Amino acid sequence: MAFADIPDQKKAKRLIRNQLNTERLSHAYLFLGPEGVGQKELAKTLAKTYFCENMDEDSCEECTQCIKVKHSNHPDFDLLEAEENKDQIGIDLIRDLQKRIAYRPYEAGHRFFIISGADKMTEQAANSLLKTLEEPPGYATLILIAEDESKVLPTILSRCQQVRFEYLSDEILISYFKQQGVKEENLKLMVRLAKGSLMQAEKIIDNREIFQKRNQVFQFLVDLADKSRVEVFREVDKWKEWYEEGLPLFDLLIDWYRDIIIVGDVKTGQINNSDYLSSIESIKDKYSKSELIKELEFIREITASINANVKIELALQYLLLKLRTKRCKYEESSRSNISSGR
Ligand SMILES: [Zn+2]
Predict the structure, then answer these.
(1) Could you give the CA distance from residue 1 to residue 39 in angstroms, rounded to a whole number?
(2) Ligand 1 centroid to 333 CA: how many Å?
(3) CA 253 to CA 20: how far, in whole Å?
(4) Eight-class DSSP state of 121
């Protein structure tokens, strides 16, 4: 991708291009912002444009240098990240970087080192990297990519030029989904689930059965009061698997409750799951608004606990059993109200 093809991120692109054109690149950058909104692409494009044989203001994407960076096999471009299934960057990776950075450029006049997930470094790794940031060789530029600024050591923050990345606009995501052949009626939901990130959008496209799974999740919620404990446990196993495959389960649940709470107060067009309108309305009629808001709060708490490393299986069991108990109690009390003539 050339600068011109990277979607959105006007400010970040302007800053980098300016410094590149005036030959005032920093020795270290920290790209901050939500995951998967173009940070790696911009880092690559910076290197491509620097190395490009056609010496223009943007990468040509055709010369040997551009192609090597594009395919991540340029000897002067290194992308380092946590191994798959590991959520930390350890000291080994930083030591490896320090070994490599000691060598002068092989092919081009400069070297670029990208560390993706710089907010996932262990303390030991971060302290070790600090030494490199204090005395970087003149021929190298380091680009750190991080989502959570609060997890980056202040001493690292202060040694890097910070570049902010924004969520992608709905228009960009819509055009991406259209290119992928998503039907018009599904676009709105897809854009919401992608939450401003192209990486998330790609995951959704990879997960083709997303609509089928979503239907099952919603149908289970509709029938929750009639389900046995065994059925709940069986469902939890399924949801856990789908969640691990990339289904944005908690976003779906939060959206579902949001729709139930606001239905009737807003135009139908503002309901995200409008294909479930009649179920949503009937749930709304059955339960009190305050009860539904409490349930939504409860789901948010569970979501936060998952992010804080509580086991997904336990969290889902707890969630569904508790919601089921509430539903059963509610149904029982409304039945007894009817039979006592109230
Ligand atoms: Zn080129």
Answers:
(1) 12
(2) 72
(3) 45
(4) B
> Domains, the chain, ranges and CATH?
3-164 (3.40.50.300), 207-336 (1.20.272)
Question: What is the CA(52)–ligand 1 centre distance, in A?
Answer: 4
Residues with CB under 5 A from ligand 1 (ion): 52, 54, 60, 63, 66
CB neighbours (10 Å) of residue 234?
11
DSSP category for residue 83: P
Distance 3 CA to ligand 1 centre (A): 12
Expressed in angstroms and rounded, the spacing between residue 55 Cα and the centre of ligand 1 is 8
Evaluate whether 131 touches 95 at the Cβ level (below 8 Å): no
Q: Which of 107, 106, 83 is nearest to 93 (CA)?
A: 83
Would you give the distance in Å from CA 299 to the centre of its chain?
19
Write the pLDDT tens digit of every residue in 77-134: 999 998 776 778 999 999 999 999 999 999 988 999 999 999 999 999 999 999 999 9
Instruction: Report the alpha-carbon angle 312-32-179, nearest 5.
Output: 75
The structure's pTM equals 0.75
Q: How far apart are CA 187 and CA 173, in angstroms?
A: 9
Cα 77 to averaged position of ligand 1 atoms, centre (Å):
14
Cα angle vertex 277, ends 274, 283, to 5°? 135
Are 106 and 75 in contact by the 8 Å Cβ rule? The answer is: yes
Strands (E), 147-290: 161-164
214 vs 326: CA distance, rounded Å: 23
Question: Residue for token digits 């240098």?
Answer: 65
